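Researcher: I'm preparing a figure for a lab meeting and need a structural model of a single chain. I don't have an experimental structure, so a prediction will have to do for now. The sequence is pasted below. Please return the structure as tokens so I can convert it later.
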Amino acid sequence: MFRLLSKESNIFSIPVYIGFLLLIVITFNFLNFNTYEGIIAGITFLGIALGYFCFHSIALNYQTHLPLFLYTFFVFGLYPGKLDMGLAVALLTNSFLLLLLTSTNEDIRKKSYVLVGSIVVLNFIFLPTTWPMAVFVIIHVIATSEKISLNLFRFLLGMVLIVLSYFSVMFFIGFTSWNSDYFPFGRIRIITDYQELLPMIPVALMLIYAVYDHFRNYNRKSPVSRYKYTFLLVFSFAQLITIILYMNTAYEYLLLLAFPSTIIISRMLRFLPKYWMQEVSLWLIIFSLIGFKAGNYFNLF
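Model: Understood. Here is the structure written out token by token.
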């Protein structure tokens, strides 16, 4: 199966995988469908679907079927069928941030920082626990920009524009009290029961090994590959902070790591020395995700 998925994908591949994704979202939302849930499902679908195009933008997986297949399976395993509006919006905004910040055109990146700042604030408005994303973008600007002050100003300008617009709209419609949910540090819920996450241990171990293997062979990689992989690791770390501090038993938060985990694991599988290792690892990921899905769906743990 690994050899089949290692073949180069073509122009028709992404629409096919998006079709499977649409089928997954529709299936899980069919029984409890209403207008509000339909809107959330639509936002979730758009956010996850954009992830397929981010693979081409980051260009770390050699345009094979493997990352597309694994991403679809990660979504199937981690998607509970019903998401909070904030998390659905976070998935959508993360996809836009990845598309903007991983562009190989420096001119496009520097002109997009106002939009990036706006997206980060929108992300925070809908889900305050995603505040680490703002820190990630600031670190990215400092580490990659020639004109750090100017680009930070653009980023902060985008944030200020949305903040002023938000407060103006809220004041106009009569909401003048402050919601304590916008102080996420008071809502920290560090996970204490790991039992339901046990099926995901093989996936976690593969991620750890993949990061170790990357740094072990760091000097062999091209400068572009090192830059993009480092970007992906810092992005994943920002998501991981949100998950560790605020997930508790809301395991749908793991969807925030579905895209970066797919790229990291796909590269790890590709560079394993033996074919049997690649095949066994692939099936281990599949069974781990199926076990996690079954455990949560049928309350086995």
